[in-house]
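subagent[fold] <- orchestrator: predict structure for attached chain, return tokens only, no commentary.
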Amino acid sequence: MIDGHWYPKGSALCLHATLTVNDLGRYAIEVEDGTIFRGDVSFLSISARLGNIERKITLENDSTFTTLDNNAIDLLFKDTEKVNAFIHHLETHGKSIFMALIITFFTGFSFFKWGVPYISKKIAHVLPYQTNELISAGSMTFLDKYLFDESNITKDKQDKIREHFKKVLAPLSFNDDTNLHYKIHFRSWEMDGEKIPNALALPSGDIILTDQFIELSSNQEEIDSVILHEMGHVVHRHSLEMLIEGTFITVAVMMISGDGSGVGDMGVGLGSALISSSYSRRHESEADVYAFNKMLIAKIDPASFSAIMNRMTEYMNMNDNDMNKTLNDSEIMDYFSSHPNTKERVKLANHYSECFKEGLTVCK
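subagent[fold] -> orchestrator:
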């Protein structure tokens, strides 16, 4: 028997009452005025235990029974209040609180570090190809308006590179995705007077080559190696994966904070950027392997990739003080900060180059 007080719905009247529960799961509340309420305990709404604060039990008729005997309530309703009992256990045991925090942290970290990329990859490859075209719609217009200028590469050279791509590289993608339609674009990209060597691909298959990248390339094979790398991004749907990952993170932040506009103030923006950078390095490695495998089939030495990567790195280092600072401040498609370590990429390219020299079309 548990002593407490009974309050009728919508009234300040307070009467002494007792609560009992039998082995059949039936309760009885006897009020001092002789009123008795009976029913099944499953229809009772029991408030969560918070320290030693008075416990409230709401009946089916919305009247309320309250008591300070929390231990008795926990014991009496132990089968139906397991969650509340667990929470109370955490509240009253410091070690349990610490362990719960550690478990929560690592669960959350694991979800964003490994769970989100895995789920995003599965979703990205289930969606139809038209999704890539949809998210790419208007991208070239935006880039031309805010980032790129008209290319200074001669029309003859542009046509030669496009024709070579059509005859040599495009056929390599026939077994990847029959819905892909690649198109080569040439643009000039400058920041604070510095020319940016880069190549990037939109999910739709539009591949953009900057003038400085073309100028730094000493031969067609070096250009081919980078184009194949960008084709790898398209085939693996990396842009779509990144979009889905970003959506997961944004939704999670909104659920935690209740307002996505405060991400920057909470420091979550920095965490999201770090996670995104990690994902990007994984994507770059996948695109590298795609390019090297295609180069073996096309009989192009993967060492060409090493050569152009080293040359681009040297160029970036020569302009490190001004250009790299500009790129970091702009946070727009920072080619080198998001890519894997250049030495690691060159090492892998050289490994594939050894397979090329042996005449292999598959390298392990």
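orchestrator: received. Logging for downstream: The CA atoms of residues 198 and 213 lie 6 Å apart. DSSP finds 15 helices and 13 strands in the chain.
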